[in-house]
Design a protein that fits this description.
- The protein is α+β, with helices and mostly antiparallel strands and about 140 residues long.
- It has a domain at about 40-75.
- It is about 30% helix and about 25% strand.
- The protein contains 2 helices and 5 strands, in the order αβββββα.
- Strands 1-2-3 form a 3-stranded antiparallel beta sheet, with no helix packed on it.
- A hairpin with a 5-residue loop joins β4 and β5.
- The termini are far apart.
Length: about 140
């Protein structure tokens, strides 16, 4: 589940954030659970009040850890298939005073790193051109 693009500071309140050390500790705990080969069960529900969901809803239960609702997302049988790479990006405010974690897992981390590197290189190139133009007096009054 990639939600990094929608993380923004204006949606976070002071009481709904985590310190970097807390994020690192949580990443380590999650990686440990992933490696523990914890069973995952899936219930698919549709119809009735769920007709407006745009498709079947999957309730993913990671035994002894958590249960979540996913709309039309792939699922797995054990946590080990997630890979051991997880990166928490940010927190967001949830309902009922809960914190929503925005994160990347597995191959998503690699794709995000690749996109970030490419974006950084593009910005550096643009800044170099701007610096060159300013050095030649272009755009000066």
């Amino acid at each position: 589940m990639f939600q990094g693009d929608r993380a923004s500071a204006q949606h976070r309140r002071a009481g709904h954030s985590m310190k970097p050390a807390q994020m690192e500790a949580l990443e380590a705990a999650v990686s440990e659970k992933i490696c523990a080969h914890v069973p995952v069960t899936v219930q698919v529900r549709s119809g009735g009040l769920l007709d407006n969901a745009g498709g079947p809803i999957r309730i993913i239960d990671i035994k002894g850890v958590d249960a979540n609702v996913l709309w039309d997302q792939p699922h797995l049988q054990v946590t080990l298939k997630l890979n051991t790479v997880i990166k928490l990006l940010a927190t967001d405010e949830g309902k009922k005073n809960k914190i929503i974690l925005l994160f990347l897992v597995g191959n998503q981390v690699l794709k995000y790193a690749e996109k970030s590197y490419s974006r950084e290189r593009s910005l550096v190139s643009l800044l170099n051109v701007l610096e060159m133009l300013q050095g030649k007096g272009v755009g000066k009054n």
